[in-house]
Amino acid sequence: MPKDILGWLRPLHIYKGVKNKMKKNKVMLVDDNLDNRVIVGEMLETDYEVFLSENGSDCLVEIPTFQPDVILLDWMMPSMDGIEVLSAIRQKSEFRNIRVIMMTVKAQAEDVLKAWEAGAHGYLIKPIEKLDLMKILERKMLEKKMLDKQDEERSDMESHLRQAQKMDAIGTLAGGIAHDFNNILFPIMAYSEMIKENPENTAGVKKYIGQVQVAAKRAQELVKQILTFSRRTEQTPLAVEVGLILKEALKLLQPAFPANIQIQFQILKNCKMIFADPTQIHQVIINLCTNAKHAMQPKGGQLSICLRNLPDNETLLLNLQPDVGYLELKVGDTGTGIPEDIMENIFEPFFTTKEVGKGTGMGLSVVYGIVKNLGGSVSVKSEVGKGTVFRLYLPVIKERPKSCEAKKSKKIVGGTEKILVVDDEPVIAEMLSKVLKGLGYQVAVFTSCSETIKESRQNGGDLLITDCSMPEMTGVELAEQFWLKQANFPVILMTGYSETLSKEEALKIGFSDYLIKPVLRADLARAIRKALDKKTT
């Protein structure tokens, strides 16, 4: 048989598997003998999608792309034998469900035992009978299918449990949230009354309005935190400053803590960033602090939190990866401590020492799962009657991303174009009219979508700003009416909150921008100018 037969044989088998309308299970055959590859490949090509590999190195490279269900692995191969290949496969968690069947001419009991100990799921003696091969493949395909299904069910369950635990934490924070909102509303109401009572006091009015703006900004950030934390979907991981998230979380937590628990926290300078979902880091902090609070009730105590870059010499002592670099987040309390006999159970789902109705028992298991998924580590030390200290080690980003550097404020630029504004809230519509006229624009304001369409058809317009949710039609439906007439007509969508449409989806549909209310004048001006300038280029 010609040596270059492998060149056409390998793509032929893959092509047959892909072409078949019925999705076939995948088999990877690893054997340095060309004749063996051809013979076994021909046995399997009718029933399976087959990939042929002549050595262990190629096999390991191709597994992530081909994603086999079963690997038929020759034992005796040059440079890297089957046991070494099997060991490399077992080290990758993403390959854990792949079934590996060893093939060899060896038939001694000690060889079979060695294969099983290395992690093989089957053993075939060469020469291989087709019937024996097909039977073992059928069994292993069923095993792989069952394991994949279990993984999928486990993943779904973990997702539901994480959400349940989030809502449990929101319940814990309810008092703190109410406290914060009331503190925000108090200056807004008080300063507004003073402005109303004495409008001639120009200096005082200017000062009071500044305080109202500060309070409104705090309210905006608080709503953003609550929505981010309670959402069902996880964010895309990005470069985050743990110190900023720590400060945000403590703002919510502090009012929910009784007066007899003191909170001390320290964020050391120049803490590096990590690559993570900000929501999950927020959740980790809240879970650890809430656990500490429960441990110190009813007597009270001290909660201490410290964030720092972990020195390289300590990384080595802790057996962490030496070339990675870590942040250390330490959360300690002076509570009851954890008994030694239950210490090994504390990260298990639903394990809790709390009374029924006092928690889900998911807090620490969620913390552990999040940190491990980030490639980090968790350690805990505790002494009964003296307290507990959790230390989280989170891998850092070596260089600070340029996008995270502080942006210079840009001058607010207006224009003279005609802008159509529609919002079913008259107060908001009127407010937007005043803001836009102040920027120099011609403005036509409406609370009705049909009136907006009528104005556009009769007198035209250069840009539309529309609310997302309105009784007559949605902002998307209104925009589509404009796009029927002019495909690239610029439309900015504004919303207080939308479960059905994200910013990414809105931009994909064709919106020029997607703004979350409340919107600062400068941000609104930039979005309008960007949309109009793009229209003219």
Note the topology:
Elements lengths: L4 H15 L6 E5 L3 H11 L4 E5 L2 H11 L3 E5 L7 H9 L8 E6 L4 H10 L3 E4 L4 H68 L4 H29 L7 E3 L1 H12 L7 E7 L6 E3 L1 H19 L4 E9 L2 H6 L8 E8 L29 H11 L3 E7 L3 E9 L22 E5 L3 H13 L3 E5 L2 H11 L3 E5 L7 H11 L5 E5 L7 H7 L3 E4 L4 H16 L1
Parallel strand pairs: 1-2, 1-3, 3-4, 4-5, 7-9, 13-14, 13-15, 15-16, 16-17
Antiparallel strand pairs: 6-8, 9-10, 10-12, 11-12
Helix pairs in contact: 3-4, 6-7, 8-9, 9-11
Written description of the protein model:
With 537 residues, the protein is an alpha/beta fold. The protein contains 16 helices and 17 strands. Strand 4 (99-104), helix 5 and strand 5 (122-125) form a beta-alpha-beta unit. The chain starts with a helix and ends with a helix.
**Mean pLDDT across residues:** 81
| Proportion of residues in extended strands | 15-25%
Largest sheet: 5 strands, parallel
Return the structural class.
alpha/beta
Question: How many individual helices?
Answer: 16
What portion of residues is helical? 40-55%
Could you name the ranges where pLDDT drops below 50 across 5 or more consecutive residues? 1-21, 353-362, 404-409
Classify the oligomer: single chain
**Termini, distance in Å?**
64 Å
Task: Return Rg in Å.
Answer: 31 Å
- How many β-strand stretches? 17
* Backbone shape: flat
Lateral arrangement of strands in the main beta sheet = 2-1-3-4-5
